[in-house]
From TrEMBL:
Name of the protein in question: 3-dehydroquinate synthase
NCBIfam families linked to this entry: aroB
Pathway info: Metabolic intermediate biosynthesis; chorismate biosynthesis; chorismate from D-erythrose 4-phosphate and phosphoenolpyruvate: step 2/7
An MF annotation (GO) of this entry: 3-dehydroquinate synthase activity
Keyword Lyase: yes
Annotated CDD domains: DHQS
Record's function text: Catalyzes the conversion of 3-deoxy-D-arabino-heptulosonate 7-phosphate (DAHP) to dehydroquinate (DHQ).
Encoding gene per record: aroB
Binding-site list for NAD(+): D65, A66, E67, A68, A69, K70, T123, T124, K136, K145
Residue spans crossing the bilayer: none
Length: 356
C-alpha cells in the first residue's frame, strides 16, 4: 500500500492507495458517535463493507446512481435523513462510490451543521485519482455542471483497488481520461505508463503507479491553490486541472448528464489540443498523442450530439469565465498549461469541426 499526503490549507490528510486500503477506515472513523454512509442505491454491498468495519451505529443513505445523485432534490433528501436521525457534530459522513457519490456526500458533509467530518472512499478509478481528492464538492444544475458546491476537504481518502473488481470496463476506462489529463498538464511519465499493455489491470504495478502519480499531481496542485484563484498566462494554478473540461462539461450538460464524465473530458481534451496547436503552437505530435492515447483506451474524440453553437452557449457558464470572456486551459507543450482568454471564436469552432 502507498500513501500520498495532501498538505491542504484546510487541514492536511492522506490518500491511502492499494489493495486492502479499506483496513484504514476504523482509524479514520475514530471516536465518531455515528456514521452516515452515503452510497449508490445500486451498490448496497458498499455500505455493508463500511458497516462491517466500524464500531459506531451506521445510518445508510442510498442515493441514485451516477449523475442522478448530484441534484438539489437528492441533497435535500440527504439533509432530511440526517435531521431525522438527529445527526450531531461528533458524527461522521462516509461517501463510498464513484465521483458522483463522493461529490454529493462531500457537499452533504460540508453543509450539515456547517460542516461535519468527512471520509471519502472512492470506488471508481476516476474518483480515486481525482474526484475524492482536493475538496471540490457539489451538485449539478440543468444549466451546467457543478454549479453549486463548496471547497471542503475530507479527513482522509481510502482508495482500495479491491473495490474496482466489480467496476464495468467502460467506467474503468473513463477514469483514465483524468489520468491522461495529469500526464499532459504535469507529469509526462504518466503518458509513457499509459501506453503499457497492463495499464488497465488494477492488480498491475503499472496501474498502481499511474494512480499514485495522478493523485500526486492533484495533491501538489491543490496544495498550492486550493480555492482555484484566477490564473493568468503561463502562471496556472488549480485551473490546470480543468484541462479539457470547458467543452467536456458543456457536452455533459447538453447530453442531460447521460455521458460519462471521463468520456466527455476525452472529447474536450482532443478539442483543446487542436485549439492549442492553432493558438499556442502545440506540436502536431502532441495533438496526435492525445488522439492515440485516448482512442487506444476506447475513449471518444467527438460528440455527435450537437453543433458547436449549442455547446458554445453552455460554455459561457463555465466557472473559469469572467464576464463575457471565455477562459480556457490550453497547452504550449507537455507539462506547460497556459490560460487562453478571449480566443478568436473562429479558431474554437474550426477545431470543433476538425473533430468530425
Ligand atoms: N470533485 C472533483 O474534483 C471531481 C473531479 C473529477 C470528477 N468529478 C465528478 O465525478 C463524477 C464522475 O465520477 P465517476 O466517473 O466515478 O462516475 P460515477 O460516480 O457515475 O460512477 C460510474 C458508475 O460506476 C458505478 N460504480 C461505482 N463504483 C463501482 C464499483 N466499485 N463497482 C461497480 N460499479 C461501480 C456507479 O454506480 C456508476 O454507475 C462527475 O460528476 C464529475 O463531475 C469531480
Ligand atoms: O479539482 C479540480 O480543480 C478539477 O478541475 C478536477 C476536474 O477533473 C473535476 O471534474 C472538477 O469537478 C471540475 O471542477 P469545476 O470547478 O470545473 O466544476
Ligand atoms: Zn474532471
Amino acid at each position: 500500500m502507498t500513501t500520498v499526503h495532501v498538505p491542504s490549507q484546510l487541514g492536511p490528510y492522506d490518500v491511502h492507495l492499494g489493495h486492502g486500503a479499506l483496513e484504514r477506515l476504523p482509524a479514520l472513523v475514530g471516536d465518531a458517535g455515528r456514521v452516515a454512509v452515503i452510497h449508490p442505491e445500486s451498490l448496497p454491498r458498499l455500505a455493508d463493507e463500511v458497516a462491517a468495519l466500524v464500531d459506531a451505529p451506521v445510518l445508510r443513505v442510498a442515493v441514485p446512481d451516477a449523475e442522478a445523485a448530484k441534484t438539489a432534490d437528492v441533497l435535500a433528501t440527504c439533509w432530511s435523513r440526517l435531521a431525522e436521525a438527529g445527526f450531531t457534530r461528533n458524527d461522521l459522513v462516509v461517501g463510498i462510490g464513484g465521483g458522483t457519490t463522493t461529490d454529493l456526500a462531500g457537499f452533504v458533509a460540508a453543509t450539515w451543521l456547517r460542516g461535519v467530518r468527512y471520509v471519502s472512499v472512492p470506488t471508481t478509478v476516476l474518483a480515486m485519482v481525482d474526484a475524492a481528492v482536493g475538496g471540490k464538492t457539489g451538485i449539478n444544475l440543468p444549466a451546467g455542471k457543478n454549479l453549486v458546491g463548496a471547497f471542503y476537504e475530507p479527513a482522509g481518502v481510502i482508495c482500495d483497488f479491491r473495490l474496482l473488481e466489480s467496476l464495468p470496463g467502460a467506467d474503468l476506462r473513463a477514469g483514465f481520461a483524468e489520468i491522461i489529463k495529469c500526464g499532459f498538464i504535469a507529469d509526462p511519465a504518466i503518458l509513457d505508463l499509459a501506453d503499457r499493455d497492463d495499464r488497465l489491470e488494477p492488480g498491475s504495478l503499472t496501474f498502481a503507479e499511474l494512480v499514485r502519480r495522478a493523485v500526486a499531481v492533484k495533491a501538489a496542485v491543490v496544495a498550492a491553490d486550493l480555492r482555484e484563484a484566477t490564473s493568468s498566462g503561463d502562471r496556472v494554478g488549480r485551473e490546470a486541472l480543468n484541462y479539457g473540461h470547458t467543452l467536456g462539461h458543456a457536452i455533459e450538460a447538453h447530453a442531460g448528464y447521460t455521458w460519462r464524465h471521463g468520456e466527455a473530458i476525452s472529447v474536450g481534451m482532443a478539442w483543446i489540443a487542436r485549439v492549442s496547436r492553432s493558438l499556442l503552437g502545440l506540436a502536431d505530435e502532441v495533438v496526435a498523442q492525445h488522439d492515440e492515447l485516448l482512442s487506444d483506451l476506447g475513449l471518444p474524440l467527438r460528440y455527435p450530439g450537437a453543433d458547436y453553437a449549442s455547446l458554445r452557449a453552455i460554455m459561457s457558464l463555465d466557472k473559469k469565465a469572467r464576464g463575457n470572456t471565455l477562459r480556457l486551459v490550453g497547452l504550449r507543450a507537455v507539462g506547460r498549461p497556459t490560460i487562453i482568454a478571449g480566443a478568436d471564436e473562429r479558431v474554437l469552432e474550426s477545431a470543433y469541426r476538425e473533430l468530425g
